[in-house]
Automatic annotation (TrEMBL), chains A, B:
SUPFAM superfamilies: Zn-dependent exopeptidases. Residues 1-19 form the signal peptide. The keyword Magnesium does not apply. GO terms for biological process: proteolysis. Pfam families: M20_dimer (PF07687), Peptidase_M20 (PF01546). Keywords: Hydrolase, Metal-binding, Protease, Signal. This is Acetylornithine deacetylase/succinyl-diaminopimelate desuccinylase-like protein. Residues 266-408 form the Peptidase M20 dimerisation domain. One of its GO terms (molecular function) is metal ion binding. It comes from the Bacteria.
Length: 518, 518
């Protein structure tokens, strides 16, 4: 009997030394109740003068969007950023914002704007005016030409970096404000707008901007609005009540006291007696996940993830039919044959929204040209991001990864954090959220209300620091964020189920009024 | 008792599943006898007229070398290659080679030359006229300007791509032939010269060139000579009687039926439900070696390596003092603090020359610019080379790596061989080798005679296909092959222990005569 126990013990020890034992977190549901947005009454307001202004000024409004996407603003490459900030501030001034100013940070400036309508309700608006770098291959048009394509499969589209993420919907929102002001004399709400130019860098200084205007922003009793193109190809809307957090870091291997070339590549024949930083980095990276790359083997990395609460489970149950209807189209548009392990439906959406990630954004080192070059390079670097879910934090995640690397003997691998912020979320019960849902309902859309996006934004500054709800809102369609050939639909083809930009502007006219009446 | 056996069995199974068990091959010696090149009689010939010609034409001879390194010939980038081939053929014609012609291959042309001296002895000369691509950073001069630096630490040097690998020593050899022809009317040997323009690509078509001239080359009863800068900084010479082979291949991971994005990068938030080709490639690479990157864990990869034979052991025992004297300087010039695991002396040189390697020459995929970009890239690629020792073959090595990847489940990782050839070696007892050693002895140098280089060249076409010995020969000093700031010494500073190019040319005058008398 003792021997059998020993056998089991030995076996357990051996197995626990492998990565196979770590499992992806599962999120078992405790309720089948589903949130139903169809029970929210449609918004009943009609704002004919503003709608007419939008119809009459369509060409100028499209040009506004083109002007924005033509202005480069690649934050990672400091390309056109301050010019874009100035363009945004000038546009706010032109709209009648009493305050419109650039706010210096340690890197790219923020933009603060205040529109004083003398109204009871004040809303805050989050904007980001920076964009991702341009992919060297894959673009069918000049990414900064503001090209209108007449014959896109979806109709007339604007194809440009920033078209959908996020200059397009933001300038469309300002077009809507212009329409209200011109048609009605003033807005029905006061607006505090705080834009950043570093969202694509992980928003390192947005907390500073928030801190500077915190006393003002706390007066925003209507909550925070984030304009975006909300429709799927099927015409539906997936509302998201929150975002994941993010930590972005680099891992670097270079020759040093532990071995390997310190300062320059050497002839590859020396591999027989010289340590290789590249193979070392590959080992360190491999130690972070299971062999399929899908389970994070960093001890404790999953521990702080909380299970979905009652509201979140009801929201997921509510959006599941829409997710399932859209799943194949989503895979097709991504060029992905299947989700991990062939999962679908509730398992897929729950993993998507409630699980953390570890992703390699890029890796480089040594020779990458054509043909052969036989070198032992001295330095290799890889970029990673991890999307954080409640209750993960960037500090804890970084600490766990560093501790894991050290425990595995990878003390020679350098870890440098480039950015990080925690997740954020608002409740569906917030009046702001209910007003937005009511507006969708007016447009015949019953939104799928998701507890959060799988993507990241620094909403924690609103939800955690200012203690106010934030919600994204908008109709219309865009695609290709962070990818070549990003676009938004300007005029959908007949039969297409998404709104064009004129309708998207009318939607924002309604949202602003709905929030004023909340 | 049965349970204890079960325990042991379970334990053994578990341990054998890990990489820790695979060990680096060891090469225990069975003899302490040492080869002593000092027992070879110095060459006694004097060729005063040729020496005087070399002294009188120093400036023109330096210009010949500059002209060669200024002519770009980057085989991997098809940059200047055919122009360099034409320059070589024209130079042979000018020297009085009866035959001098470009020989087409499927890619870059070879160059064949025949000098008919009506002599009893015919030697073959191997040349390569191509060079490595230029490193984007690290060069202190234009790599193709043929810059003479007056104030280098070693004296007057020529700094350029190809200065030492191999245009410099090759053109110096031709300068020496010119001196003999001008001073003595003709060469004392017939010469068959066969150059390739694809050495840096792994010599894919050199076998075709050899096959085309095999009947002629078999008449080269003197063997094959390969000119190179043979001295170390201490003034000594390490002769190498052979080379390792090489297999160069790429591993590539891309989304497909197994999961992951097929055609373009996607937003990194999708990592929660989409497989990642990059993490998958890291796992495949990590599976090839031990955690320190230094033991190849591909089953059977070491099996065909034969132990050093009696002659090889004696040669190693003979060169060990020179290796040990040079070891610290070698590490310093490479920017390497120590060899793998801190090994030194016989262990280090034996691993260097008798062990195979697996080296990652480069890796790339995704975003490598400044700052952060959050993408899940669809494709990652890494380049590898493995140096092959007797009795490894490229085919067997590739088969084992592919089989290992498949066995580990990495059937989704694509392996593409870019080049490959087996190792080669000549015996120290060959008359050609003895003639070269005798010439070094005349110059006061007792060479360290190594059984092989750790680097690779396609000498198997001579040793295995034509069944003739090949030896590299030359004095003078160069450094920086396959690296920035490659150079050769033109005129050494007083106190420097290496020869300048004038002396290097006189050495070749002697070698050619010594071989004629062998």
């Amino acid at each position: 009997m003792k021997s059998l126990l020993l056998a089991a013990a030995l076996s357990a020890v051996a197995v626990s030394a492998t990565a196979q034992e770590v499992k992806r977190p599962e999120f078992p549901f405790t309720t089948e109740k589903a949130y139903d947005a169809a029970k929210v009454a449609p918004y009943k307001g009609k704002h004919a003068a503003a709608y007419a202004y939008i119809d009459a000024n369509k060409a100028a409004h499209i040009e506004n969007v083109q002007r924005w996407v033509r202005q480069r603003s690649i934050s990672a490459e400091n390309d056109g950023v301050s010019e874009m900030a100035q363009m945004l501030a000038a546009d706010l001034k032109a709209l009648g914002f009493k305050e419109a100013e650039l706010v210096p940070t340690k890197r790219h400036p923020g933009v603060w704007g205040y529109y004083d309508a003398g109204a009871k309700t004040t809303i805050a608006v989050y904007m980001m005016y920076d964009v991702q770098p341009i992919e060297p291959v894959g673009w069918n048009v000049d990414a900064f030409a503001g090209t209108i394509l007449e014959d896109h499969a979806l109709g007339r589209v604007l194809m440009a970096r920033g078209a959908t993420n996020q200059k397009g919907p933001q300038r469309i929102f300002l077009n809507a404000l212009e329409a209200i002001i011109k048609a009605e004399g003033k807005l029905p709400v006061n607006i505090m707008l705080l834009a950043e130019g570093e969202e694509e860098l992980g928003s390192p200084h947005y907390p500073d901007l928030i801190a500077k205007y915190a006393d003002r922003l706390k007066q925003a009793n209507g909550g925070v609005l984030f304009p975006m193109m909300g429709q799927t190809l099927a015409g539906g809307v997936q509302m998201s009540l929150g975002v994941k957090g993010n930590i972005y870091f680099e891992l670097e291997a270079q020759g040093g006291a532990q071995g390997g070339p310190r300062t320059a590549e050497i002839h590859s024949s020396l591999k027989a007696i010289v340590d290789a930083p590249g193979l070392r980095l590959a080992q360190a990276i491999a130690s972070l996940t299971s062999p399929d790359g899908n389970v994070i083997t960093v001890p404790g990395f999953y521990d702080s993830i909380r299970q979905p609460n009652q509201e979140e489970q009801e929201l997921i149950n509510g959006v599941l039919p829409a997710w399932e209807a859209n799943e194949a189209a989503m895979q097709k548009s991504l060029g992905v044959d299947k989700w991990i392990g062939g999962m679908t439906g509730r398992e897929a959406i729950t993993q998507y929204l409630f699980n953390t990630t570890l992703n390699m954004d890029g890796i480089w080192g040594g020779y990458s040209g054509p043909g052969t070059k036989t070198i032992l390079p001295h330095k290799f670097t890889a970029k990673f991001d991890s999307r954080l879910v409640p209750n993960q934090t960037p500090d804890e995640s970084e600490r766990l990864i560093r501790a894991h690397l050290d425990a595995k003997g990878f003390t020679d691998i350098k870890l440098t954090r480039l950015s990080g912020y925690p997740p954020a979320q608002s409740s569906v019960k917030e009046p702001l959220v209910q007003a937005v849902i009511g507006t969708y309902r007016k447009y015949g859309i019953t939104p799928s209300v998701m507890p959060r996006l799988a993507g990241s934004a620094p909403y924690y500054v609103f939800t955690d620091i200012l203690k106010m709800p934030i919600v994204s809102a908008g109709i219309g369609y865009g695609a290709g964020a962070h990818a070549p050939n990003e676009f938004i639909v300007i005029d959908p083809k007949p039969g297409t189920k998404v709104a064009g930009i004129t309708e998207a502007e009318k939607f924002y006219v309604d949202v602003v009024h709905a929030v004023a009446k909340r």
